[in-house]
Amino acid sequence: MAYKWHLLLGVVLALECLSAVVFHRSEDELRALLSEGTAQEQVEALFVLTNRDVPITIGKGKIQSLLESPNPLIAEWMMTTNFLRFGYHHLKENHIRSLPDSEAAFRCQFFQDHQIGRQPIKLSDLSRFLKSE
Amino acid sequence: MLVLTACGVTLRLAFLFLAGDLEPFADESNYLYLSLIWNHFSFYSDGMVYLWPPGYPFLLSILLQLYGEGGVFAIKLVQVLLSGVIGWMTMLLASRFFSWRTVFFAGILWCVHLPLIGFTHLLWPETLFLSLFLPGFYLLVRWWQRGFSESADQGLLIAAGLILGISLLIKEVGLWWCVLVGGLIVYRGRKDGLALACSSAALFLLSVGVIVLPWTLRNYEVYGRFAPVGTTLGQNVFGGLNGFYMNFDYPKRVQSQVEEANALIREWLNTPVAPIWERSTAMNIIDQSAENVQQGIQYSLDHPGYTLRTRIKKLADWTTPLPFFVRHYILEKYQGVLNDPLVRKVLIVTALLLPMLVLAGALGGIFFCLRGVAAGPLLICTLLYFSVAGSLIIGMSRYRICIEPLLIMLAAAFLCGNRRPWRQKMPAVLCGSGWVLLIALWCVNAAEVWTTVQIIW
Q: Between A5, A25, A77, which is nearest B203 by CB?
């Protein structure tokens, strides 16, 4: 058949689109993950929600409560974001200083300092970061 | 070919060990950062202003998971080994387009080409991209030069599309080139019937699409917008179509001296006529990119004279002989043997002369060696596309790397005498004009390059 490859590739593309529909997570599902998911699911849900411009309030109070979340990954992820998503740099610095665990503080500081366009990562810091994980 | 490839890989391996553990700089650190985020949070983030394709950070994240901090060395080792693919494909393309003598010359030029050697031991995706782009391009050349049955033709297009699709997950610069190739496939196949030609083009584009679509859909899932592969255009437009000048070939250490040395030309070409427009603060990175592109285009339309003048400097930056390899000397990254005074001088001079030889030779190759060569239009359009893409917005030597192997092949063809006689004088006139233009562009940046060399000499 002359167009068998076109058909096959078309089917693959259709399956890819179908997968996207099947695995699509709505805002409600993401909000549910934000409160009930695993640590990593919560962070990913937050990442997707903020990117989709879902109107979640990201004022000072919200940022503070996210930083104090029992899930440390959320605070660490917020350190990777700049003023475009989560500003209030001083809140993040205060949070780092308040952390009792020095390795957790180091990780937060690492993510904060080496955001895209800021200080380049030193190999010694990379080594320490990987050991702290 | 095997011997030359082995020599080139061995040389790159030697540089890898001699360079030692280089501290990441600029985007090297950014790619490392993204891969660490991927491992730590189990999803791919973005750079706030860049949404880079995931391929390189993904590979780096895997190697960091497997080898810890040794992952940085591991990816450089992978790059060195993959550079063998680049060398092999450069010579294979030379055999497709020209003669075995050209293959030999191209192999030697590739072996010692310091700009390409440099990228094998730095954390940049160019080597990985080329190791996929060149085989895909080769398959397209084979299809173009075909004498095969229809089923083999289809196999070539599908394989080319799949491989080039993967290359787009490394660097997205070739995205619209793939669309252009679709048009070229129709052009090539038109004599066999338009329906068949369109069918062939569709086959290629579908193959690219099969690879690119999943990540495009992922971007839609995360960002609520369509961004095929990634989007870096907005940030590049902010830096390139704006009221200020930037060129990452010059680190901060030399910027003020370089600016002073070339003050007259920079004043004539780069003096802004309007205030800088500010980058979009949209939270969604794809919206941000789109808004930046709109602002940049508007700025260019509002100030056409300034835009045209600054393109001359961008073109000069794209054709500069100053590669990232020399930039690492400016940054004082190389130590040990590579920083021995005599070795340093030899390497710097070689690193500057080779791109000049390749660029000038490639012009000769285009005008004197390509006449009547099958797949010539494909090669020319590819060179034009990447030249425009690499110099229209921000010019930098790194943006030339995508086609450097093709330029090496053309330069080798010209230098080893693989010329085809022309009846008219027009090609000689055009080539001569090209050389004059190239020399003029080098003169635009001559003071900057000379000052840089003096600083690191």
A: A5
